[in-house]
Specification:
Keywords: 4Fe-4S, Iron, Iron-sulfur, Metal-binding, S-adenosyl-L-methionine. The chain is of the alpha/beta class. It has 22 helices and 24 strands. It has three domains: 188 residues, Cobalamin-binding domain (Rossmann fold), CATH 3.40.50.280; 141 residues, Transcription Regulator spoIIAA, CATH 3.30.750; 138 residues, Transcription Regulator spoIIAA (2-Layer Sandwich). Helices cover 30% and strands 13% of the residues.
C-alpha cells in the first residue's frame, strides 16, 4: 500500500487459500477484475481466525470486505467422505493443514462483523455459492440455513461472479447503502419485508423444510430449474421472525470476449514469494502449465455441483486467446514442453449444446445428454480438435495432454471419428481416464449418465482405433460406490464388471454428499426430487464401506468386508476357487491377493473392456464471486471435484 501510495484499500479480500495470482484461482480473478475497473484490493490470506487483529492488518476498507473459503468448501478440504480429518491441504504453503477454520465463510464473516460493525461484507466462492439457500450438511447430518444468515454477511455472490462483483463495487462507490443493493443478478440478500420484491417464486419456508424432508426435495427441484440466466426466476426462502432470503436470477453468462479479457488480465502466474521457503502451494503445481478453455457444463451429472454453480450453458474462450496463453507458458523458464491440460469441466465441449439455449435458455425439465443425446444437440468437436492441433505445433511444445476429462457419450454422438483419432494419437499417454461411473443402468439413470451400452461401444471403438495405429493404450474408468440407487446387488454387479476388465482400480470414489447436488438431495431425502419417487440410499457407513470394498475386492485388507457384502447380497457363488469368483473361501495369507481362483496378482492400469465406470462426486467449478475453478487438479478431490479456483470443481 505504501509503495502504491494507497492510504486505504477499497476492498479487503479475506480468503482461506494461500495467495496464487493465476486465472485458475478465484481470488486472483476477482481481485484482478476489480483492479481492472480501478478499485484498490488488499488481500489477507489464511488469517488467524482466533485473533481479531489478523483481519485488521490492512485497516478498514473504504467499500467493504470480500470473503471466500477458497477453491474448495472448507469441510471438504478438511474431511474425507468417512469424516476423517485430512492430513494435507493443497491450497496452503507446503501442503500443511490447519490454516483455515471449518465453515470458513461463516467464521470469517462473524470475525469481521465483530471487529468492523458496519462494514459491508460480501461473501462468495464455492462454499458460499453452494450454501446460498437452506442446504443439507453431511458433516452434521442435518439441514442448515443459508450461509448468508449464519455468516452475518450483507450480500452473497453465487456462480462465477465477475459481473456481480463489479456491479456491487460500482453501487457502493456511488454511495448506495449496502442494504439497498438488492437488484443485482447472481446475488442473494436478506430482507425483512417482501413489499418491494417482485416476480418471485416462494420456496418452502425454513419451518416447512425442517418439518418434512420431502419439502426440501421439492424446494431443491425448483432451485435446479431456475439456474439459467434467461429463464431463471427470483426465489424467496422464508425464515422465522419475518426474515426472507432472496435469490436473484443468475448472472448473464460471459461472452467469448469477456472470457478472454478475464483470462488475460496481468496475473503474476505464480504463488506469492513469501511461500518459497515452504516449497510453494501444491495445488498450483497441478495447474501451472494447464489452460482453462471453457466453463459451464451441459452434462448435468446428478452428483456434480457444476450445474448449481456455473450453469449448463457452455462459455468458451476464443481460439486466439488460448493460443496466446500457450505461448506465454512456453516462455516460462520452468516450462519443459508439456501442457498438462486444456479443458474445463468437460474438455471436449467447445460450444453450447444447441443454439436454442442462447435465445430461450436451457430446457427446465430435459437434460441434453440423458437419457440419450437430445435431437436438438449440435455435436461439434472440430473446434477443440483444431485447437489441440495448433497447440502442439507451437515452438517449444512437445506434448499437449487432455486430463480434464471428456464426455464419451458426446464423442460417440459425433458422426466423425476425427476428434477421437486425434486424441488417442497425440494427446493420451498410455491411459485415457473417462467417467462411466457405474455399470448398472438403474444406477446410471439416477446419476444422469449414459447407459452401459454407450460406454461399451466407446471402449470397443477406442480399442479398434488403437489397433489401427499400432498403439497400446487403455481406457481407465472412474468409479463411484454407494451412489443413491445402488443396493448391494448393484455394488456386486460393479465388482463383477471390474473382475471382467481384469484389473483393480487404484482410485475409487465413495459417494460424498456435498452441498447442493441432486444426488445429495436424494441422499438426504430418500427420493428423486425430479419425480418425488423413493430411491434406495446407502447411508450406513458400514454398508458404504462394503460397497467400496467390493470394487477393490482383490485387496487383502478388504477380504472381510467383501465376504460380508457377498453373503448379504446372496452371492456366495462368488466365493470360491473358480475363475468367476471374486474371493476365496479362506482369507489370503501375507503377500497374497484376496481374489478368487484364476485371478493371480491384480494388474494395475486398465484395458478398454467396456464395463466399468466412474469418478467421485463432481463438485463445482467456478468462482462463485470469489473463486473460479480450473479443472486440472483432479476432479474434485473431495466431492466437489475440481473446484480449481473460483470456488468450484468437479470431483471430490
Amino acid at each position: 500500500m505504501d509503495a502504491r501510495g494507497w492510504d486505504q484499500c477499497d476492498f479487503v479480500y479475506i480468503c482461506g487459500d494461500a495467495y496464487v495470482d493465476h486465472p485458475s484461482f478465484g481470488m486472483a480473478i476477482v481481485s484482478r477484475v476489480l483492479d481492472a475497473h480501478g478499485y484498490k484490493v488488499g488481500i489477507i490470506c489464511q488469517p488467524d481466525w482466533t485473533d481479531p487483529a489478523s483481519i485488521t492488518v490492512l485497516g478498514e476498507p473504504r467499500l467493504g470486505f470480500l470473503v471466500s473459503a477458497g477453491n474448495m468448501d472448507s469441510m471438504i478440504n478438511h474431511y474425507s467422505v468417512t469424516k476423517h480429518r485430512r492430513h494435507t491441504d493443497a491450497y496452503t504453503p507446503g501442503g500443511e493443514e490447519g490454516h483455515r477454520p471449518n465453515r470458513a465463510v461463516t467464521v470469517y464473516g462473524n470475525l469481521i462483523r465483530q471487529t468492523f460493525k458496519d462494514a459491508p461484507i460480501i461473501i462468495g466462492g464455492i462454499e458460499a455459492s453452494l450454501r446460498r439457500l437452506a442446504h443439507y450438511d453431511y458433516w452434521q447430518d442435518k439441514l442448515k440455513r443459508s450461509v448468508l444468515l449464519d455468516s452475518g454477511a450483507d450480500i452473497l455472490i453465487y456462480g462465477m461472479g465477475e459481473h456481480a462483483i463489479v456491479e456491487i463495487a460500482d453501487a457502493l462507490d456511488a454511495g448506495l447503502p449496502v442494504d439497498q443493493i438488492t437488484y443485482i443478478n447472481g446475488t442473494v440478500y436478506r430482507t425483512g419485508s417482501l413489499d418491494e420484491v417482485y416476480d418471485y417464486d416462494l420456496l418452502p419456508s425454513w419451518d416447512d423444510l425442517t418439518a418434512d424432508k420431502l419439502n426440501y426435495a421439492r424446494s431443491f427441484n425448483v432451485q435446479q430449474q431456475n439456474m439459467d440466466p434467461i429463464t431463471g426466476h427470483r426465489l424467496v426462502e422464508p425464515y422465522p421472525n419475518s426474515v426472507y432470503v432472496v435469490q436473484n436470477p443468475p448472472s448473464a453468462t460471459l461472452t467469448t470476449d469477456e472470457m478472454d479479457e478475464v483470462a488475460e488480465l496481468p496475473y503474476a502466474r505464480d504463488w506469492h514469494p513469501d511461500y518459497d521457503a515452504a516449497g510453494g502451494v501444491p495445488a498450483f503445481a497441478e495447474i501451472k502449465f494447464s489452460i482453462s478453455s471453457n466453463r459451464g457444463c451441459f452434462g448435468e451429472c446428478s452428483f456434480c455441483a457444476l450445474t448449481f454453480h456455473q450453469g449448463r450453458v457452455l462459455q468458451m474462450r476464443s481460439h486466439d486467446s488460448i493460443m496466446r496463453e500457450a505461448e506465454l507458458l512456453t516462455r516460462d523458464p520452468e516450462f519443459k514442453g508439456y501442457i498438462n491440460d486444456v479443458g474445463g469441466p468437460t474438455a471436449n465441449f467447445s460450444r453450447p449444446a444447441c443454439d436454442k439455449q442462447l435465445k430461450h435458455g436451457v430446457c427446465k425439465n430435459k437434460r441434453c445428454l440423458w437419457p440419450s443425446v437430445c435431437k436438438n444437440m449440435v455435436v461439434d468437436e472440430t473446434g477443440y480438435t483444431q485447437l489441440l492441433r495448433d497447440l502442439r505445433q507451437l515452438p517449444g511444445v512437445k506434448k499437449v495432454f487432455v486430463r480434464s476429462g471428456i464426455r464419451f457419450d458426446y464423442t460417440m454422438a459425433d458422426a466423425s471419428d476425427e476428434f477421437l483419432r486425434e486424441l488417442l494419437e497425440h494427446h493420451v499417454s498410455g491411459q485415457l481416464r473417462v467417467a462411466p461411473e457405474h455399470v448398472s443402468d438403474a444406477v446410471l439413470s439416477v446419476m444422469g449418465k449414459p447407459s452401459r451400452a454407450v460406454y461399451d461401444a466407446f471402449c470397443r471403438k477406442f480399442e479398434r482405433l488403437n489397433r489401427e495405429y499400432g498403439l497400446k493404450q487403455y481406457v481407465v474408468p472412474y468409479l463411484i460406490s454407494s451412489h443413491p440407487g445402488s443396493t448391494m446387488k448393484e455394488a456386486v454387479d460393479l465388482a463383477e464388471a471390474v473382475r471382467d476388465m481384469g484389473y483393480m482400480p487404484e482410485q475409487v470414489q465413495d459417494f460424498y454428499p456435498t452441498p447442493s447436488t441432486m444426488s445429495t438431495c436424494m441422499y438426504y431425502t430418500g427420493v428423486d426430487p425430479r419425480t418425488m419417487k423413493p430411491i434406495y440410499v446407502a447411508r450406513d457407513p458400514h454398508e458404504k464401506a462394503m460397497q467400496r470394498a467390493l470394487i477393490q475386492y482383490r485387496k487383502p485388507e478388504n477380504y472381510k468386508l467383501v465376504r460380508e457384502a457377498l453373503e448379504k447380497a446372496g452371492r456366495r457363488d462368488l466365493i470360491g476357487y473358480t475363475k468367476h469368483c471374486l474371493i476365496r473361501p479362506v482369507p489370503p495369507r501375507p503377500g497374497e491377493t484376496s481374489a478368487g481362483g484364476g485371478h493371480g496378482a491384480a494388474k494395475k492400469g486398465g484395458k478398454a473392456h467396456g464395463g466399468a465406470a466412474g469418478k467421485g462426486p463432481k463438485g463445482s467449478k467456478g468462482h462463485s464471486g470469489m473463486s473460479r475453478a480450473q479443472n486440472t487438479a483432479g476432479r474434485n478431490r473431495a466431492a466437489q471435484g475440481r473446484q480449481g479456483a473460483n470456488g468450484g470443481g468437479r470431483r471430490n
